[in-house]
Structure formats: structure tokens, C-alpha cells
């Protein structure tokens, strides 16, 4: 790969999709890693929303509490702060804040393993993902997210899910082949 100054790589990377920059070029070299992270933390990171789904207790209507990007942590720049709470549908705002307060008091055990709702841009795909290093802000609604973990989970390869039925079929197929000479 030719060695160009960072400024040229930054100009080139601006024409590529964020997912291509992260998945294809990010690990190609230390220089491209540095340039890719610089590009992605400028604008694409600001388009992410991170949130939770909820269901109202009285009508069982679904809703979402979403947080938009606010800033990078000055002391630990690997973490991005998502605040500016948005509730969908908006008329469930009070209910959503009660649910958020309940989660703050009781913890977020299911959400850390089952998934946070993540979306890139208004028209981006919605992905439910585990973000084990996510930290919930006590007091005002908001979360600290390791942006590398976020990028890997959102743009990385989809997780491999094995079905128990498929494993049984594979095992029975292997046994039948071993019985036939």
C-alpha cells in the first residue's frame, strides 16, 4: 500500500461509506486505523442513537427511549456521551422517564445482554446489540458508550447463531455417513 500523508488519506476516506471505512480499511495499517478513526469520530459517530425499547404497563404499547450523540469524553476519548433524550412516541415521555428511573434503581441486567437499540442516521437499520462496556449516567438520562465497541457491533460481521436443530441434523448426518462405507 502506498504511503500518503494523512491529509490525503482523510480526503479519500471521506468518499467511502462509514461501514466500508470501518470494516475494510480500519485494520489495514496503523496509519489507516488512525485516519479511519479520525474520520468516523467526526461525523458518522454523531449520527448514532443508542436507546432502549419499552412497553407501557397499562396498554402494552411499545416505545423507545433514544439518546443522541453529545460529545467525546475529554479524559477517555474512547467513550462517547449520548444524551438529549428522545422518546417515541412523544406522548409517552412521562411514562418513559418513569421506566428509565426504574431501570436506574433496579439496574439494566437484561439490556446489557439482550441488546440496546442502535441506529445510524434516521434511515439506518436498527440493530439490537449487547454493549457490555456501556455505562449508564446516574441522574440525567444518558449513556457512555465505547465507540469502537459500537462500530464493531454495528458494522462488524453478524453474529453466528447456531440452531440446536441444525446441530442435531449435522450430527445425525455425520453418523449416517460413518455407518456407510
Automatic annotation (TrEMBL):
What lineage, starting at the top, does this entry show?
Answer: Eukaryota, Fungi, Dikarya, Ascomycota, Pezizomycotina
Looking at the UniProt entry, the stretches that span the membrane are none
Name of protein: F-box domain-containing protein
Q: Which CDD domains match?
A: F-box_SF (cd09917)
Which PROSITE patterns does the record associate with it?
A: FBOX
Report domain F-box positions.
1-48
Q: Which organism is it from?
A: Friedmanniomyces simplex
Amino acid at each position: 500500500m502506498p504511503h500518503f500523508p494523512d491529509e490525503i488519506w482523510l480526503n479519500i476516506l471521506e468518499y467511502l461509506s462509514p461501514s466500508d471505512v470501518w470494516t475494510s480499511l480500519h485494520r489495514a495499517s496503523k496509519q489507516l486505523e488512525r485516519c479511519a478513526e479520525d474520520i468516523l469520530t467526526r461525523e458518522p459517530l454523531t449520527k448514532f442513537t443508542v436507546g432502549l425499547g419499552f412497553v407501557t404497563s397499562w396498554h402494552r404499547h411499545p416505545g423507545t427511549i433514544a439518546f443522541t450523540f453529545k460529545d467525546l469524553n475529554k479524559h477517555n476519548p474512547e467513550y462517547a456521551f449520548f444524551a438529549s433524550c428522545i422518546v417515541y412516541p412523544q406522548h409517552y415521555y412521562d411514562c418513559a422517564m418513569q421506566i428509565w428511573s426504574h431501570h436506574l434503581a433496579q439496574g439494566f441486567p437484561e439490556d446489557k445482554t439482550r441488546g440496546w437499540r442502535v441506529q445510524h442516521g434516521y434511515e439506518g437499520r436498527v440493530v439490537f446489540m449487547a454493549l457490555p462496556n456501556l455505562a449508564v449516567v446516574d441522574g440525567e438520562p444518558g449513556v457512555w458508550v465505547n465507540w469502537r465497541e459500537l462500530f464493531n457491533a454495528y458494522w462488524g460481521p453478524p453474529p453466528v447463531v447456531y440452531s440446536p436443530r441444525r446441530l442435531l441434523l449435522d450430527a445425525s448426518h455425520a453418523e449416517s455417513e460413518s455407518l456407510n462405507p
